[in-house]
Structures are given as structure tokens and as C-alpha cells.
Amino acid sequence: SQARKIVILPGDGIGPEIIAEGRKVLDAINEQYNLGLSMETCVFGGAAYDETGTPLPESTLNACRDSAAILLGAIGGPKYDKAPRELRPERGLLGLRSELGLFANLRPALLYPELAAASSLKPELVAGLDLMIVRELTGGIYFGQPRGIEERNGERVGFNTMVYSESEIRRIGIRAFEIARQRGSRLCSVDKMNVLEVSELWREIMIDVSKDYPDVELTHMFVDNAAMQLVRAPKQFDVMVTSNLFGDVLSDAAAMLTGSIGMLPSASLNEAGQGMYEPIHGSAPDIAGKGIANPLATILSVSMMLRYTLKEAEAADAIDAAVAQVLAQGYRCQDIATGQSEEKVINTTEMGDAVIAAL
Amino acid sequence: SQARKIVILPGDGIGPEIIAEGRKVLDAINEQYNLGLSMETCVFGGAAYDETGTPLPESTLNACRDSAAILLGAIGGPKYDKAPRELRPERGLLGLRSELGLFANLRPALLYPELAAASSLKPELVAGLDLMIVRELTGGIYFGQPRGIEERNGERVGFNTMVYSESEIRRIGIRAFEIARQRGSRLCSVDKMNVLEVSELWREIMIDVSKDYPDVELTHMFVDNAAMQLVRAPKQFDVMVTSNLFGDVLSDAAAMLTGSIGMLPSASLNEAGQGMYEPIHGSAPDIAGKGIANPLATILSVSMMLRYTLKEAEAADAIDAAVAQVLAQGYRCQDIATGQSEEKVINTTEMGDAVIAAL
Ligand SMILES: CC(C)[C@H](C(=O)O)[C@@H](O)C(=O)O
Ligand SMILES: CC(C)[C@H](C(=O)O)[C@@H](O)C(=O)O
To answer: Which domains can be identified in chain B, with CATH numbers?
Structure first.
């Protein structure tokens, strides 16, 4: 049934390799917990452009619409730099977000104790880091109209529109407050209210939403200061909520604080709870096909899928525990290896196998 | 004469305290090098709002127009949060940038060897950091039209426009290439070309400008990746050039990498070479009036003024050397003190005196 259908989009670069491991874990957990999930693999991104001439074929979009959740590997690569703008892999991703209304992007930045040394920050500043960024994903300057390049006063001008309506701000606000309530009950809304009108409305609505969440502490920060504070003292944050563009930048900065972006999953949810789940690390064309990519972010994306869309918290906990265990056992893919003697550096499939063994 | 007139804007918070020390150094260097500079102090920011009802009084604007350079302390504070939007201190700053056409914002991020421990990054990743961010300052979403909050389909919508013309991109590009040529000859242009049309034009024009600078290596990076790379390996960069909003975020992140924002000056230049010089740290209302603020960023802003507008490189070098010397002597204001035994923690005026003594 639709409520149990998972669409799998391997995508480009290392996508197929890491998805194979994510799939292995998903299959195992499906059986172990009797979840009754059915899987369907579709073509997407650059691979779909190569095969069908478009990064988001109609058949893939329909399969996604008809699914409970989507597991995405990664898309893009230098091969597609010369493709027409509207047919580049990223357009497929933006199209899917928009078509499915996946407005709530959850970007956890979590530092595993064993990997603290991988961070470029001093260990004491990041040890125990557990931050959640809630990024609005279907509005703002990514989708705002008018946009384009046109001739004005004898020269070309490029323009985009950063736009948010009250209802768009309210629904991402509600989502963020709900998440904060389930965590440390502190929410920091990031805007540029001292310069932008769109941020003025953003802040006003966040304050309005906060009235329904007296148990959650709401603070506000300008985006430039937020970027500073993430570098200075990231553990001051619990949950951050921000617009599409600011979230793009801050969530990547926050991810990099952990030093191990090969470990970080993400979720993109719509009103109905349908979700797309993907590792944040991208398609890494330089190591594609070598079998050395770290599949843990994809495996943790499976865990997020179980938790946020399928409401199978027990199965999700099992995956999280298995990942923690393989790290504790010293297993590392090359991206998170630091050369310590306790480490056992393994490849993509071995890491998938290790997680299955730990399950 | 106008070519030798310096307007001083103390502003708010710690502004007057740090400006007093900057002024002391400027007076000393004026005499020592026989520069023939004349100084005039004007009211600006929140202080001007309190006194005259507007953050940028006509008389201040006229004095600034009629000057060679402006030395600004800092503006703003919680006291003005409730002032009408158009009369907040920041609006004075944005107005001054715009009225004087100060389109080129130079934001060095330099880590002094003695202060490496202050960084939140591991010392080996930041030791020797010397990065220059060139931020476009009078265009983009800061000033783009249309902008506002209005009713659409029964709800309010906030909107701003990110807009750049070819000529705006070209002139900041030229400035950045010129600066890169005088440094490590590597320029990284930061955009969001995979999503924004305005960035498509930005990248195209940067590539076009690069044809006149075959000796400078031009690379491109998406803003989200740039934020990551600054955290991961900031020393990979020599000069970065980017738009107003991206530059706002990235330059603050880069500054914080040094761990000592109390040390960082900035310049904002127009076509004619006229410039506004200011420390990047802001008005720090929490320590205002205590006499403990670090005046070194202001003193280094005086140095930038001598170098970039007044073309007095020798005098600028003398200030830079004096600052390096006081650091080597162990003098620290509290913001950059780390508790090591060689350090002598001193206050604002003592630091100004120490620099004068070293001159
Ligand atoms: C590929 C790109 C369009 C995308 C974005 O900017 O949203 C990516 O950076 C992300 O954060 O998922
Ligand atoms: C005060 C504010 C308007 C300003 C800006 O955003 O440009 C500040 O953050 C800066 O970077 O100088």
C-alpha cells in the first residue's frame, strides 16, 4: 500500500554505492520488525537526465507522489555542468521538493564522541554537539517570482525575489517549535530583520507562533551573527529555524563543525508527514565507483525515515544504536579515519555489513 | 583641504571609547609623518538619533561627503530596538554606504601569531591565516527594489529583491582582482549559481573580468560550500569576492575564525578611493563605558585608512608594526587575554598608549 511504499533514488556519483548499503539496512529492518515496507527504485538526477533527458522524469515524480517516503542518495557532478540550466540535476531536486511540498528540512548536526577529533574545532567546543537546524525548503528566494536576467538601461540585470507569506512562515515555525519541545525546548530563529522586510515579517510571525509554545524559549539572531556563533560556541544552540537560503548556508556550516559530514542525514517533510531522506554529503564524483564512500549518513537517513514518516521509533532506535556500536567497535570509512591504532578502516559494503551485524 | 579632511564618527556603545584611542594614534601619526590631516567629529547612529531625531543628520552626511575618509567607531544597541525602522542606527550606516557609493567592502581576516590560541579552530588550521574578503556593499538584496510587506490573497507577504547589474558586478570584480594581484593572486568568487539567476550573471561577469587578469587564478564556489570550507580549511583562500548578503555572512564567519574580532578592521571604498574605516566588532553595549574595550581594531582601521585612501603606506606600516609589537610585548585587552603568564591585561586607554609608545 502507498502508506508503506518507499521510493529509492540512487542518483549520481557515489549515490548508487551508498544507497545499496542503505537499502540493505532497510531490508533487514523491514524483516526484523515486520514493517511491511515495499521498495521501488527510480531514476533521478543526472542519471535520469542521461537516460531520459530530464532529471525528474514524470514516472519518477508519480512514484514519489504515491510513496510514503523517499530515500535519496545524491545528485550532480561536473559531467552535468554544461547541461542546460533547467535540466541540471539540482533542478530535479528543487522540483521534487516543490512538487511534494517538502517545506520542512531537518538538518541535525550531531557529533559522535568517537569522532570528536575529526572536527576542525577544538574538542571541548564541539564534544557532545547536538544541534538541529530547521530550514524552510519550498519558499524564499529559491522559488520566489519575479526572477530572471533582463536588459535595463542598456545593460543586463540579474534578479531574484526573497518572499515569504505569513502562512509559509507560520507552518515552518510550528514545525520548529514542535521539534524544540521534543528536545531542549530552546529555539533560535535566524533572520536579517535589520535589513530585510521579509525578515521583519518572519520575526513577527515567529513571535506570534511562540505564544502557543510557552514552554519553548524563543530567541532571535541575525544571520551574520549566527554564522559567527556557530564558529565560536556551537553548543549554545538547541534548535535553529530559518529561511531557505540562510538555512542552506548555516546548515552546511553547522554540519562541517562536526568534521564528519559523511555521518549526517537529513529529512525533508511535507504537511502530510511524507518525507524525503538523504545524506547531506553530496555525490562526491572524485571517489565515485571506488567503493570507499561512507554509507552511514544514508543508513542514518533510513533511521530518520523510520522515525519521522513511518513512526517506527523502535526500529529507528535500533539503527541508531547499531551505528553507534560500529563506531565504538572502531570501524571507520576512510573519510572519518584519523589514523589512531584502534581504528579499522573498511569500505562501503563492509560498513553496511557491520551495521547489519550490529542490528 | 578636503583631500586631507578626516571625519570621525564615534557612534554608540563602546564607539566613543575606542575612537578616542584611534584618534590618539591618528593625531600622533599625523604629526610624526607630517600628513597635514585635519579632523572633524560628527554625530552619527543612535547618538545622532537621540540628539537630532535621525541616525544620519544632513550635516554629518555633508561633512562625510566633503571628507577624504571617515573613521567610524560602532553603532546600535538595544536602546534603539524600538525606534521606528527608518530611524534605527543601522539605517544611518546603510544610508552612508549608499550616499557615498562605498561599494567595495574590504574585510581582512588575519590571525596574529600570538593570538592563535584564541581561535575556536585547531591552531594548525588557522596559524598564519591571512584572508581578504571583498564584499559588494551598495547593491544586492540590501538595496534592491521592489521591497516591502503587503497583502496578497488575504494574507501578508514580505519580499525583497536581490538584484545586480553587469556594471555593479564588474566594478567589484575589478577591485577584487586588483587586490588579489597585490596578494597571493588567487581569487575565489562566491555565488549560488545553481539556484539564482542573479548569481548566473555574477559568475558570467567575473569570468569576463578575469580575462584582464591572466596572472590571477579565478575559482568559483557556492555560498553553502564556502561556509563549509571556511570552517574546514580556511587557509585555502587568498581573496574571496562576493555579493552584499553572502559577504555579510561569510566575512563575519571568517572573522570569527581568528577568535579575536576585537582585532579586525575594515574598509569601505568608493570609485574615487574615498573610504569609511571601522572595526568590525560592533558597539558591544554590555561593556560600554567600562573602559575595557579593545581599541586595536579601530587603530588598525586608521592604518587601513592611511594605506587605502591616503596612500601613506609608510605611516600605515608603522601602525601595523606598533600593533604587532604591543602584542609581542604581551599586552592584551580582556577580550584577547587567554590567561597565559606572559600576558599583561590592560584597559582601553592603556592599549592606546602602548601603541603610541611603540610608534
Ligand atoms: C543542490 C542545491 C540546489 C541544494 C540547495 O541549495 O538547496 C543543496 O545545496 C542543499 O542544501 O540541499
Ligand atoms: C548593521 C548591519 C546593517 C550591517 C550589515 O548587515 O551590513 C552589519 O552587519 C555589517 O556587516 O556591517
So the answer is: 1-103+275-359 (3.40.718.10), 130-257 (3.40.718.10)
